[in-house]
Amino acid sequence: MERRPLRLFVLHLLVLSLPLVCACSGPDGQSPTVRPGIEVLATDSVHLLKGLRVGLVTNHTGRTRDGTPSAEALRRAGVEVVALFAPEH
To answer: pLDDT per residue over 59-83, tens digit each?
Structure first.
């Protein structure tokens, strides 16, 4: 069985350090909607990770707005998360 090479994406910069703001109108048509980077990655940019084995740098606070852990959000989006890295400090 041929193994694909492990490609680790350091998503820390995408997901934790650079929170993304959606500039579109919110549900009430007035206020802007703020989406955590993991939600943007798991929906709008998931095609960048499809077919790759991904390592995620995160900690216990890495979650979507509804409380789903970042790794689980990526798995539900069809990303093969093979390693979790949790910085101690």
So the answer is: 889 999 999 999 999 999 999 999 9
